[in-house]
């Protein structure tokens, strides 16, 4: 029936290009912290893109800190040996390079400040991150991840930090879910992770 | 409703100027990104200011590599962001590339920015990554790219993009 075909076409148009806009760079989903959980998860990630990007603004509810690591885990994989990563970072006085031990939480992908209000007062200060996950939907490649992160606190104590992380998830499964865990505390309600899909030609 | 990633404004200089300004920035996006490819008549650094703020409300931490050594430095309670490498700055003839990602620029918190800096002059150069903080909870509606001395040369290109989440 012509009207059924028309309705099907309209529904298909509405369901295409999840989130906003069209083109090669599309928003997939946005997740905010609840204040009562240290985990944020994106699940049921469509396999229709070439790469993924996460843009993050983060803070832990902990009040000690002043900064903590946070991790990324793929497909609920808790096998520590499947995660490898290296970093290059600057503290304002020294450039540092190294790697983190394998962890059941995944690998360290960034740093976040805490909800501390004195010595130093970190009110309204956040960590930022741009995380790129390449060829996430491939079923023949291990997954490579890159992050560019920074937390600036206007202090001279070395807790402001900017850096680059590279990570490897030793698994050829397509990434269908990913979780971000803060090392200590919970994600504040002002924490936002935005997931984007990048299409190839 | 804006697209997820779209240009807001772009300029390619037809005449030299000391300052490139993006103004009346709409508050409808989540993040902003500016990209500038530039040369400068005096080979100087350039600075970034937002909303015309000339107060000491800026700070930054950087990570740099010169091809010889890696280093890190900071500026606290400063009057601007300085994305150019301290040891080099802009060239009079070789274009350098800089980007700035301004997160939650229209929100009600202090503003954090990630800068990239790519300065290669075939035998001399710097690669720098910076995080900056503008201690002001006002929405950003203006971004100024300011030559510390001299002018941005003709042909310098700067574009501002808006990025919108779901």
What is the count of β-strands of chain B?
11
Distance between the termini of chain A: 35 Å
Radius of gyration of chain B: 15 Å
Number of helices of chain B: 0
What is the strand content of chain A? 35-45%
Structure characteristics:
heterodimer; A: mainly beta; 8-stranded antiparallel beta sheet; 1 helix; 12 strands; 7% helix; globular; disordered N terminus; B: 166 residues; mainly beta; 3-stranded antiparallel beta sheet
Structure commentary:
The complex is a heterodimer of chains A (201) and B (166). Chain A is mostly beta strands. Helices cover 7% and strands 43% of the residues of chain A. Chain A contains 1 helix and 12 strands. Chain A has one helix at residues 2-15; strands at residues 25-32, 39-42, 51-58, 67-74, 83-90, 95-100, 107-113, 127-134, 143-151, 161-169, 178-182, 192-198. In chain A, the strands form 2 sheets. Chain A has an 8-stranded antiparallel beta sheet with strand order 1-12-3-8-9-10-5-6, with no helix packed on it. A 4-stranded antiparallel beta sheet of chain A has the order 2-11-4-7, with no helix packed on it. In chain A, a hairpin with an 8-residue loop joins strand 8 (127-134) and strand 9. In chain B, the strands form 2 sheets. Chain B has an 8-stranded antiparallel beta sheet with strand order 1-11-3-7-8-9-5-6, with no helix packed on it. A 3-stranded antiparallel beta sheet of chain B has the order 2-10-4, with no helix packed on it. Chain B has strands at residues 5-12, 19-22, 31-38, 46-50, 58-65, 70-78, 96-102, 111-120, 125-134, 143-147, 157-163. Chain B contains no helices and 11 strands. Chain B has 166 residues and is an all-beta fold. The A-B interface holds A 18-23, 25-30, 55, 57, 88-95, 97, 124-128, 130, 148-156, 160-164, 190, 192, 194-196 and B 1-6, 30-31, 59-65, 70-74, 76-77, 101, 103-104, 109-110, 112-114, 116, 129-133, 135, 137, 163-166.
């Amino acid at each position: 029936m012509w009207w059924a075909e028309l309705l099907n076409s309209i529904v298909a148009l509405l369901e295409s290009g999840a989130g906003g806009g069209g083109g090669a760079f599309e928003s997939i989903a946005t997740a905010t912290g609840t204040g009562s959980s240290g985990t944020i998860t994106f699940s049921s990630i469509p396999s229709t893109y070439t790469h993924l990007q996460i843009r993050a603004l983060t803070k832990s509810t902990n009040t000690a800190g002043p900064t903590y690591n946070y991790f990324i885990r793929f497909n609920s994989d808790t096998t520590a040996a499947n995660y490898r990563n290296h970093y290059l970072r600057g503290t304002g006085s020294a450039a540092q390079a190294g790697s983190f031990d394998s962890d059941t939480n995944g690998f360290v992908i960034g740093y976040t400040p805490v909800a501390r209000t004195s010595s130093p007062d970190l009110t309204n200060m956040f960590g930022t991150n741009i995380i790129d996950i390449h060829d996430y939907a491939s079923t023949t490649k291990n997954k490579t991840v890159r992050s560019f992160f920074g937390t600036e606190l206007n202090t001279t104590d070395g807790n402001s930090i900017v850096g680059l992380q590279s990570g490897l998830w030793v698994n050829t499964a397509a990434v269908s879910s990913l979780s971000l865990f803060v090392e200590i505390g919970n994600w504040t309600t002002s924490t936002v992770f935005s997931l984007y899909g990048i299409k190839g030609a | 409703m804006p697209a997820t990633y779209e240009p807001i404004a772009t300029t390619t200089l037809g005449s030299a100027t000391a300052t490139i300004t993006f103004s009346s920035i709409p508050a409808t996006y989540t993040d902003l990104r500016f990209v500038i490819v530039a040369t400068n008549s005096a080979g100087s650094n350039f600075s970034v200011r937002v909303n015309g703020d000339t107060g000491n409300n800026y700070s930054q931490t950087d990570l740099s590599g010169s091809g010889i050594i890696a280093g890190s430095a900071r500026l606290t309670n400063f009057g601007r962001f300085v994305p150019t490498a301290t040891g080099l700055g802009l060239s009079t003839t070789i274009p350098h590339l800089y980007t700035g990602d301004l997160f939650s620029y229209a929100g009600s918190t202090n503003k954090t920015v990630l800068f990239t800096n790519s300065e290669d002059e075939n035998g001399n150069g710097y690669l720098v990554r910076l995080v900056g903080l503008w201690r002001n909870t006002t929405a950003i509606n203006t971004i100024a790219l300011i030559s510390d001395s001299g002018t941005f040369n003709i042909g310098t290109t700067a574009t501002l993009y808006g990025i919108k989440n779901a």
